[in-house]
Amino acid sequence: MEPTKTNSVSTSRNWFFAGLLLLIFLYFGYFSTNWYWQRSALNEIATIQESLQSEKAREWTKEKRTTAQERIQYLEKGLNKESKKELTDRNTRAGLKKVEMEFDRILHLGQKEKNIELDIWIDREEKSKQDRENQQALLRKQGKAIPPKNGGGPFSNQDLSNLLDVTTPELRAKFHQLVKEINQRRQGRKLPPWNPFSSE
Predict the structure, then answer these.
(1) pLDDT of 98-153, one tens digit each?
(2) What is the pTM of this model?
(3) C-beta of residue 190 within 8 angstroms of C-beta of residue 139
(4) Closest CA to 99 of 155, 50, 48, 172
(5) Are the beta carbons of 181 and 118 closer than 8 angstroms?
């Protein structure tokens, strides 16, 4: 009977190791497949976003643009926490790069052209301010609560800390210079200084 017991133990051990190897294979197979899908999704989102911002996109039909945006939304739903953070960081960097390019464009204009751009900026902000005041007056008349600007109040220390985290010293310097020139132009138009961090 002893050889039979030995063979039985040996067979059980072989099955155990075979099962363990299968589990390891499935485990790494799942994470490899998931990693590949995450990378593929991020790459496809980047490709679609580039297409949406290209010159050719101006000729797209509304249906084609909607389909592209819905595809991005579908892919975003399948992203894990790490991939979502990577996508957010990537979009933030791309957005800030565009902002910096716009600041550069305005700041390097001749004074006459720059004044035109500054006036457009000022007029847009004054219109937004007037629209808010009109809305607030209507809400007061109706006895309703007045929502703060853009859904929030003045920038907190945490807000400012977050801005420091996602912006470069160069971008902050350009923004500071632009605000300075906007306020110089506002002064020339007898308007109060503009504080971009105010809730007013």
Answers:
(1) 889 999 999 999 999 999 999 999 999 899 888 888 888 888 888 877 665 554 44
(2) 0.58
(3) no
(4) 172
(5) yes
Residues 78 and 37 sit within 8 Å (Cβ to Cβ): yes
Is the distance from CB of 122 to CB of 191 less than 8 angstroms?
Answer: yes
DSSP notation for the chain: -HHHHHHHHHHHHHHHHHHHHHHHHHHHHHHHHHHHHHHHHHHHHHHHHHHHTSGGGGG--HHHHHHHHHHHHHHHHT--HHHHHHHHHHHHHHHHHHHHHHHHHHHTS-HHHHHHHHHHHHHHHHHHHHHHHHHHHHHHHHTPPPPPGGGS-SPPHHHHHHHHHHS-HHHHHHHHHHHHHHHHHHHHTT-PPP-TT---
What backbone torsions phi and psi does residue 79 show, to the nearest 5 degrees? -75, 145
Length of the chain (residues): 200
